[in-house]
Every structure is written in structure tokens, then in C-alpha cells.
Design brief:
It comes from Winogradskyella vincentii. Belongs to the UDP-glucose/GDP-mannose dehydrogenase family. It catalyses: UDP-alpha-D-glucose + 2 NAD(+) + H2O = UDP-alpha-D-glucuronate + 2 NADH + 3 H(+). Pfam families: UDPG_MGDP_dh (PF00984), UDPG_MGDP_dh_C (PF03720), UDPG_MGDP_dh_N (PF03721). Its EC number is 1.1.1.22. This protein is α/β, with parallel strands linked by helices. The protein folds into two domains: 204 residues, NAD(P)-binding Rossmann-like Domain (Rossmann fold); 155 residues, Rossmann fold (3-Layer(aba) Sandwich), CATH 3.40.50.720. Helices cover 45% and strands 14% of the residues. The protein is built from 18 helices and 14 strands. It has an eight-stranded mixed β-sheet, with helices on both faces. The chain has a six-stranded parallel β-sheet with strand order 11-10-9-12-13-14, sandwiched between helices. Strand 9, helix 13 and strand 10 form a beta-alpha-beta unit. The radius of gyration is 23 Å and the shape is globular. The structure holds nicotinamide-adenine-dinucleotide and uridine-5'-diphosphate-glucuronic acid. The site of nicotinamide-adenine-dinucleotide has 26 residues, from helix 5.
């Protein structure tokens, strides 16, 4: 089946970069990304490429090359569905905040709305691709909605989970470790494999059944997050035994069966997916009565929450057991470097804890706008917006954020933090000047020599 027009529902962190790369590598295919969020679509269409709604290294260049040639952004969802032979569903699948499965299960209402929208509009046969991360067996529900329209349109459903990481999305998309396609219809699978085949070697395109594909995505994220919780657990033991977590990580990572990646001890993982996907996995396991399986994976989250909490606890105890009225400068608000995404960022939870202890928080992040910091804190509903406004200040310049601070807490591993004039920073801080390096990016000896009271994770 030859595909000439593709539509992607959801212009977010996955839909935007993924479709931009598909458009770049398939100049003969017209790719339209649609979304219900007018503001987001306007931002994707903005002339000034530095103002795209998502910051990802290399993304603006690709959008600049392809936009309005074979890549389009629109809110006319029905038109795009009607015209396309292949439709990707790339909408958000957050943890449910209500009803059955609240706080655990994935909320599939947006995915279902897309399926119903496609069912209503389609007049010709379509391949529907699940790009969102979905619980195993979701395709069953999508199939049921699409196959009961009574309009004689044939739908093939594929699962094609996305493995990109934010901050390296373009690099990951251009050279993926693998592409995974799950489905029943061989024609549909090959139609999608052909699109990726424009730049991904065929042997790296895996074909599986739909359920393996859906479950592989949750499993991949669970394994990745488990590595971080494992090294973070060891980091706490290091702090009690004079072992150094970096040295331990290096020593175990050189074992080729373990491998060196994803062993950076940290303040705890953030991001929109690890926690939500593991909670979802735990929920699914419980729903099958597999309590030991559920308990096993749940520990990854328990440990992660502990890691965030113990960071702020240590900060408070080191500052003589009180941060009330003290200025704490937070460097970084994004959940990792090279992204403006703050979803589930550890910075939010550390700040919330410090605010409960009446600290004054000064935030600097190179890419996160001030409004996002307040939105993230207000969303928690721990205190009023007025209180958040009065206790938290954001800055466009790190030195202003740090001026007169009692302590610095490094929340994100932005490269620029390493290049700051740390002697000047020491001079403008209150003494003793404390640094809590939640990302282990600074050199302990150098910092101590300047005069800082420096502490990091797992050392
Ligand atoms: P996002 O929130 O950035 O984007 C989702 C978009 O979908 C939003 O702009 C929203 O307005 C739109 N949307 C929701 N319902 C809609 C509807 N009915 N019609 C049209 N548009 C609609 O989310 P994201 O980070 O891109 O994640 C999307 C999916 O991909 C999730 O399932 C996530 O788990 C998965 N995923 C995310 C990442 C990542 O790094 N962010 C990586 C791999 C997989
Ligand atoms: C993660 C996965 O890496 C992607 O493969 C997956 O597609 C994606 O989730 C998803 O499904 O959403 P992402 O969350 O964007 O990608 O970024 P990661 O690089 O995985 O980092 C996640 C969090 O773990 C960050 O807070 C990061 O700082 C932290 N981390 C990562 C560590 O603390 N230590 C590490 O060694 C690695």
C-alpha cells in the first residue's frame, strides 16, 4: 500500500519531532500534524523558529526545512483525517486523576476521543497507528470503536511506540536503536516499515504482534527507570560507607552484561513518562491478580520518591535544621537538560517541600519560562497562588538568582552550570555558602577549594 498522506493527532513532544523527521526523510509524503490546542498549533506555525512550542536541539532546523513544503500544522482535524491514508495517534495518556484506577491507570479518554473522531470522519480505508504509550490490549478497544461504525471503511491498527528521549529527540529519531511495529495486517505493517525504511535499516525495524509491541514500551521504560532507582539506592549506601557512587557505577558499567548507560545517580528521575508508565504497569499487573509482579515494579517509584525527599531533607538538616526565611537558589527546573519540559521534574517536589519549611526560593533555568514554574507549583495545590508568588521568584540570570542566597541546589544537569564563575558566585552568597549538587556535575575538590560547603549525591 503506497502512503502519500499522513496525519498525526497530537502536536506534542512526540508528535512534533517524530513527524518532522518523517517529513524530512520522506519528501514525497505530505505530513499534517493536528491538535485541538490552537495556541500550540500557532506556535508551531510561528515565523520565528526560536519560538516553537518545544525546545529540542536540531528540531527548529528540520521544521524550517520542511514546514509548508510537506509538513503542515493545523487545527482542522477532520480534514486531515479525511485526506490521510495513515493516521498516528500521539495524544497524551496521563495517569488518571479520577474514578477507577485513580493515581495508577492511564487515562485513555484522549485516545478514545481520537478513535471516535476517526470513526466519524473516515470515508476511505485507513491505517491507524498507536504512537502514544498505551496499556497492553488498548488496540482491542480502538479496534472495537473503529470496527463498529457500519460505514464499510476498513481500519488496520498498528502499535508503533516511540522510544525517543527528550533533549536528544532528533538524534534518537534519526538513528534509533530500533523501530517497533506491532500489528496483524502484513500490508499495513510493511506500509509503515517502508516509511521508516527511508532512513532506518530494515533489520532494525522489528515486527511483532500488537500486544508484544504495546507491552514492550511499558517494559522498556520500567527497565530504564529501574536502573536509575537501583543506582540511586546504592548512592544512599555510598553516603554511609565512603564509597563513591560514580566509581561504583563505572566499575559495574564496564561489565558488558550491565553496560555503562543510565547509571547516573541523581536527585531522582522526572519526566512525563517513567512514573506514569510504571504506575500503569503496576495497575495492569494488579488487575490480573499478579501482586508480586506489581509490588516489585512499584518499588522503583517508592525509591524515586525517597531519593527526592532525602535530597531536600539533607538540605534542611545541613542548613542547621531550618530554611525558614532563607534564600535557596535552584539552578534548573526542567526534568533534564536540553528540554523546556518540566513534567514531574524533581525540582517541583523539592521546592514544594522547602516551601513548606518557609524557604524563599529563587529559580533560574535557561529554557523554562517563569510562568511554567508557577503553574507547576500551583498545580500541586499545596498552598495558594498568592503564597507561591510571594515565596518564589524566577530570574533570567543565574547570578541574580544566586545573589545573597544561603544555598544553591542544582536540579538539572544543564552544561552551562559547569562553566559559571564559581569564585564570583561564592563572593555573592551568604557564608557559609552551601552547594547541594543533585546532578553530580561540579568538582568537589574545586568547590571546596573556593570555600563552598559542597555536597553531592552518593559521595
Ligand atoms: P503532549 O502532552 O506533549 O502532547 C499531546 C498533544 O495531544 C497535546 O498538544 C494535546 O492538545 C493533544 N491532544 C489531546 N487530545 C487530543 C484530541 N482529541 N485531538 C487532538 N489533539 C489532542 O504529550 P507527549 O509528551 O507528546 O506524549 C504523547 C504520548 O507519547 C504519550 O502517550 C506519551 O506517554 C508518549 N511518549 C512520550 C515521550 C516523551 O518523551 N514525551 C516519549 C515516548 C512516548
Ligand atoms: C524516557 C526514555 O529514555 C525514552 O526512551 C522514552 O521514550 C521516554 O522516556 C518516554 O517514553 O517518554 P525521557 O523521560 O525523555 O525519556 O528522558 P530520560 O533521558 O530517560 O530521563 C528521564 C529522567 O531520568 C530524567 O529526569 C533524567 O535526569 C533521569 N536520569 C536519566 C537519571 O537520573 N539518571 C540517568 O542515568 C539517566
Amino acid at each position: 500500500m503506497k502512503i502519500t498522506k499522513i496525519c498525526c493527532i497530537g502536536a506534542g513532544y512526540v508528535g512534533g519531532p517524530t513527524m518532522a523527521v518523517i517529513a524530512k526523510k520522506n519528501p514525497n509524503i505530505q505530513v499534517t500534524i493536528v491538535d485541538i490546542n490552537q495556541e500550540r498549533i500557532d506556535a508551531w506555525n510561528t515565523e520565528d523558529l526560536s519560538k516553537l512550542p518545544i525546545y529540542e536541539p536540531g528540531l527548529a532546523e528540520i521544521v524550517g526545512e520542511t514546514r509548508n513544503k510537506n509538513l503542515f500544522f493545523s487545527t482542522d482535524i477532520n480534514k486531515a483525517i479525511d485526506e490521510s491514508e495513515m493516521i498516528f495517534i500521539s495524544v497524551n495518556t496521563p495517569t488518571k486523576t479520577y474514578g477507577k484506577g485513580k493515581g495508577m491507570a492511564a487515562d485513555l479518554k484522549y485516545v478514545e476521543l481520537c478513535a471516535r473522531n476517526i470513526a466519524d470522519v473516515a470515508k476511505t480505508d485507513k491505517i491507524v497507528v498507536e504512537k502514544s504509550t498505551l496499556p497492553v490490549r488498548t488496540a482491542e478497544a480502538i479496534k472495537s470503536i473503529l470496527h463498529n461504525t457500519g460505514n464499510n471503511v476498513k481500519f488496520s491498527i498498528l502499535s508503533n511506540p516511540e522510544f525517543l528521549a527528550e533533549g536528544t529527540a532528533i538524534k534518537d529519531l534519526l538513528a534509533p536503536d530500533r523501530v517497533l511495529i506491532g500489528g496483524e495486517s502484513k500490508d499495513a505493517i510493511e506500509a509503515l516499515a517502508n516509511i521508516y525504511g527511508s532512513w532506518v535499516p530494515q533489520e532494525q525495524i522489528l515486527r511483532t504482534n500488537v500486544w508484544s509491541s504495546e507491552l514492550s514500551k511499558l517494559t522498556a521504560n520500567a527497565f530504564l527507570a529501574q536502573r536509575i532507582s537501583s543506582i540511586n539506592a546504592i548512592s544512599e549506601l555510598c553516603e554511609h560507607t565512603e564509597a563513591n557512587v560514580n566509581e561504583v557505577a563505572r566499575a559495574i558499567g564496564m561489565d558488558s552484561r550491565i553496560g555503562p548507560k543510565f547509571l547516573n545517580a541523581s536527585i531522582g528521575f522526572g519526566g512525563s513518562c517513567f512514573q506514569k508508565d510504571i504506575l500503569n504497569l503496576v495497575y495492569i499487573a494488579r488487575s490480573y491478580g499478579l501482586n508480586e509482579v506489581a509490588d516489585y515494579w512499584e518499588q522503583v517509584i517508592v525509591l524515586n520518591d525517597h531519593q527526592k525527599r532525602r535530597f531536600s531533607d539533607k538540605l534542611i538538616s545541613t542548613l542547621y535544621n531550618t530554611v525558614s526565611g532563607k534564600k535557596i537558589a535552584l539552578l534548573g527546573w526542567a526534568f533534564k537538560k536540553d528540554t523546556n519540559d518540566t513534567r514531574e521534574s524533581a525540582a517541583i517536589y523539592v521546592t514544594d517541600h522547602l516551601l513548606s519549611e518557609q524557604a524563599n526560593i529563587a529559580v533560574y533555568d535557561p529554557k523554562v519560562p517563569s510562568s511554567k514554574v508557577y503553574d507547576d507549583l500551583n498545580y500541586l495545590q499545596t498552598r495558594t497562588e498568592e503564597e507561591n508568588n510571594s515565596l518564589v521568584e524566577t530570574f533570567d540570570n543565574p547570578y541574580d538568582a544566586i545573589n545573597d542566597a544561603h544555598a544553591i541546589a542544582i536540579m538539572t544537569e544543564w552544561d552551562e552550570f559547569k562553566t559559571y564563575d564559581w569564585t564570583k558566585i561564592f563572593d555573592i552568597m551568604k557564608k557559609p555558602a552551601f552547594i547541594f549538587d543533585g546532578r553530580n556535575i561540579l568538582n568537589k575538590e574545586e568547590m571546596s577549594q573556593i570555600g563552598f560547603e559542597y555536597s553531592s549525591i552518593g559521595k
